Amino acid sequence: MVLSIQHLSKKYSKEKFGLRDYSLNIENGILGLLGPNGAGKSTLMKIIATISKPSSGTITLDGRDIVKEPNYIRKILGYLPQDFGVYANLNAYEFLEYIAAMKGVGGPNLRKRIEMLLEGVNLIEAAKLPIGTYSGGMKQRIGIAQALLNDPKVLIFDEPTVGLDPEERVRFRNLISDLAQDCIIILSSHIVSDIETIADEVAVMKGGMLITKGTQPDVIKSVAGKVFEIVMEGSAVNDFKTKHLVINSIRQKENTRLRYISDSVVNTSIPCTASLEDAYLFLTKNNA
Amino acid sequence: MHKMNNYKSIIKGDYQQRTRSYAFLITLAISLYLAYTFVPAPGANYTTVKIGKYVGENNTAWIGHVTAMMTSIFLSLFGFYLINSSIKKDRDTEVGMIIATTPVSNFKYLFTKVLSNFMVLLTITGLVSIMGIILVFARSNGTPFNIVQFLLPYLLTTLPCMFFISSLAVLAEVFLGKWPILQYIGFFCLFGIITANVLPGTGTTAKILIDPFGVKMVMTGMENLVRQQYDATATVGSVGFNLSSGQEVKTFLFQGISWSALYIISRLLWIGISIFAIFIASKFFHRFDVKEKISSRKKKNIITENIEARNVLQEIKRSALPSILTDYGILPFIKTELLMLFRKGPKWFWLVNIGGMIAMFFIPIKIAHQFVLPIVWFMQVGRWSDLASKEKTNRIHYFTYAAYQPLKRLLTSQIIAGIVIAVTLALPLLIRYLLAADLLPVLNIFMGAVFIVLLAVCLGILSEGKKLFEILFFGITYFNLNLFPITDYFGAVSSGKSLALIMLPIIAVLLMISFVKRKYEIEHG
Fold first, then answer.
1. Is the pLDDT of residue B248 over 90?
2. Domain stops at, among A199, A215, A231
3. Which residue in chain B has the smallest CA separation from A12?
4. Final residue of a domain: which of A182, A215, A248?
C-alpha cells in the first residue's frame, strides 16, 4: 500500500495556512510525525482521515483519490484523534458497537472481537459502566480499542500516548510495532522518545511545511558532529544561550551542564552522539 | 473599586461569550419581529391587548405600555431558554474548575451570572424598545413623542421582570442543574401559572403584587379606564396575539396609567426577592464539585477508579482477533440512537411520559390532540434538541465524520430514531383515530412528528447547538396550547387536507438544509 500526498495545502484565510505545499509518500510501516504546536500535524492527519478537505493538492491510496472517494479509505481506516469525546451514557460495549456500525463492520464475531479488544485495553471490568464515569486514561484506551475494530490497513494516531502512564506507553509502542506488519501507521507525538523507539521513518514539520523526512539515521545526520556538552558557571548560562542553540540544561550545584548544537566547538566542550531529539530541535528551531 | 472592576470584567466576558452565539442572534431576530407585531398595523386581523371592544389609539403611551408588557411576557418566554445554561457552560468547558479555585464566593459568582443574564435580556429589551419608538413614529399619526411616557413602563414593568427571569434561570441551574429537562418543564409550568394571573379579572391588590411580570397592574389600569369612560362591562380577554377578523374594534385615548408607590415597591420587592433567592441558592451551589453532589455517579466513579488503579493497557495481538464482516446497514445506528434518546433525562421521567400516553387513551380525543400531545412532545425537548448536534458537543464527530457514508447512514438513523420516539408517544392517539377510521388526523400527527424532529435536526446542525430549537419549540408549544392556527404543525386546530400540503414542502426544505449543511461539515471538518 502506498499513501501518496502531493502538493497538499490547507488554507484557513488569506494569510493563515494549516499546510503548505506538502508532499510525502508513505508505505507500509510506521511514520512518526514530529513538530511543535501549530506545525500542521493534526491538520495533515485530519485530511488523511477524510475529516477535513485540503484547499489544494491530492492524496491517493494505491492510486485512488481519497479526497474525491473518501469512503475508499474509511473502510480500512483506524483513527485515534487527539481530542476526542465519548457518549457519556453508553457503556464500552455499546460505544464500540456504535463505532463498529460507523465503520461498517459487523457479523457474528463482532461481539467477541469487542470483548477481546476490551480485554486488551483492560477495560473488561468497567465495560458495563457508562463511559462518562471513566478517567482520562480509560477513555484513551477505549479510543485505542475503537481504532482497531475494523481490522484497519491505515492507522492514524494523533498524540496517542496522552493520558497513558509510562508502563502503558511501553505497551502501546509494542502494540504499534505488532500492528505495523502490513499496515500504514502514522503517529504524531510531542514526545520524541515515543517516535524514536518505533518509527521506521520520521517526518519533521513546522509551520505547515515538511522540513525533512527519512529514516531516523538520515534525520540524525543533519546534526551529526554538531552536538556538544559543556559545563559552566550559572552566571554565564544566559549569555551562552543567546549565542548557541541549547537543547538541554541541567543544574549541578553551582554549575550547569548544557547540551548544545553548534557548527563550531566551544572550548572545554565534549562532543556527543546526536539523537533524534537533537535533530528535531535543531530542525524546528533553526528553520525559522 | 478593584473588586468592582473584577465584577465588571467577569460579567463582560460572560456577556460577550453569550451574545456571540447563533441562539442569541436568532432570539434577537424573533424578538424584533414580535416587537414589530406587538402594535398591529391598521387593518390587521389580530389584536394584542384589547379591553372589551377597545384598543388604545396609537400614541406614545399606548405603544410604550403595550410593547413593554408584551416584552415582559414574550421575552420571559424565549429569554429563559436563551440564558439558562450559563453555569452549565462553565461546567462543560471546565472553566468552572478554575473559577472554583479562585477566591470568588458562591454568592458573587451566582450574582455575576444573574447580572450577565440580565445584560443579555437587557440588550434585547433595549433593541425591542427602539423598535417600539420606530412604531410610535410610524403608526401614531403625528402625535407628539414623550420619551418619559414611553420608557416608564419598560423601567417599572419590563426591567424588574427581566431581572426576575435572570435570577430564575440561575436558580433553576443551581437546583435542577442535573436535569435540564425538568428546568424546561418547570419553567413551562411556572410561566403558565404566572400568565394565568396577569389578566385583571377579580384581582385584589395582593394578586396584583404577586405578579412578577408586573403586567396585571397595567392591565387593570387600562381596564378601569375603559370601564369608567366607555364601557362598564369591558374586560381584558387575553394578552397575546388574538385573531379579530370580522370583530368590531373601537379605539380609546390612552394617556398612561398612574404608577402607584405600592406598585413601584412591589417591583423593587421582586428584585429583592430575586437577590435573596440567589443568596439562599449560593448555600446549595455545588461550586463545580459535581461528583460530591451526585451520589450515584460517585459510586460509579469509585468503581472505575479502583479498576484503573490495578489495570493498564495489555498486549493486543492483532492476528488473534476474530475476523469481522462488512455490514453497512443502519439498524445498529438506529438502535444506539434510540438507546441514547431513551436514557436521556431522569428515568422516572418516562413514568410521566407513560402517564401522558395513558391520558391520551382515555380523555376526550380533542383534548388529547390539542393539549396532551403537544405537552408530551414538548417534554422530549431535551431528547431531540441535540439529536444531530451531539457529535460536535461530545467531540464524537472525529469518529462520525470519518465513518463510512456518514451522511446517508448516520444522519438518516438519527432522524428515524427521533421520529420513532415521537410516533411512539403519540401512539395512543393514533390508535384511537385509526379505530375511528379517521385517517386524516393520523397523517397530520405523523407529519407533525416528522416536522418537529426535522426542525430539531435542522436547527441543531445550523446553530451547532441545542438552544435555538429549545427556544423555538417552547414558543411553538405555548402557541399550540393557545390554539394558534399558525403554529399548528400536527393538525390539532385545523384538520383539513391543506395542512399536509403546507407541511410537506416545509419538511422537504428542512431535510434538504440538514443534509446539505451536514455534507458541508463532513467535507470541511
1. no
2. A215
3. B524
4. A215
Pair (A81, A127) in one structural domain = yes
Same domain, yes or no, for A149 and A259?
no
Do residues A182 and A61 share a domain? yes
Residues of A in contact with B390 (CB under 8 A): 87
Please classify residue B83 by burial: count the beta carbons closer than 10 Å to its beta carbon, then call 0-12 exposed, 13-18 middle and 19+ buried.
buried
Backbone angles phi, psi at B207, to 5 degrees: -65, -35
Q: What is the pLDDT of residues A113-123, one digit of tens each?
A: 999 999 888 89
**By the CB < 8 Å criterion, does B258 face chain A?**
no
Measured CA angle at A110 (ends A105, A112), to 5 deg: 160
pTM value > 0.80 = no
Chain A touched by B518 (CB under 8 Å): no
Look up the domain containing A252 and give its range. 222-286
From chain A, pick out residues whose CB is under 8 angstroms from the CB of B296: none
- Which has the higher per-residue pLDDT, B318 or B121? B121
CATH code where residue A44 lies: 3.40.50.300
Co-location of A147 and A272 in the same domain: no
Provide the percentage of residues in chain A whose pLDDT is more than 70. 99
Indicate if the pLDDT at residue B305 is higher than 60: no
Residue B268 has pLDDT above 60, yes or no: yes
Q: Output phi, psi for A8, to 5 deg.
A: -80, 130
Over residues B157-181, mean pLDDT: 94
- List all residues 6 or more positions away from B60 whose beta carbon is below 8 Å from its beta carbon: B136, B140, B143, B144, B145, B146, B149, B150
Same domain, A168 and A226: no
Are A123 and A199 in a shared domain? yes
Asked if residues A157 and A188 have their Cβ atoms less than 8 Å apart, the reply is: yes
A145 with A226, same domain: the answer is: no
Number of domains in chain A: 2
State how far residue B293 is from chain A, nearest Cα, in angstroms.
Answer: 14
Beta bridge partners of A270: A229
Q: Which of A13, A116, A125, A133 to mutate to test the interface with B (most CBs of B within 10 A)?
A: A133
Which residues in B lie closer than 8 A to residue A113 (C-beta atoms)? 321-322, 324
SS3 call for B478: helix
- How many other C-beta atoms are found inside a 10 Å radius of the C-beta of residue A142? 23
Do A202 and A257 lie in one domain? The reply is: no
B contacts of A45 (beta carbons < 8 Å): none
pLDDT at B47: 85
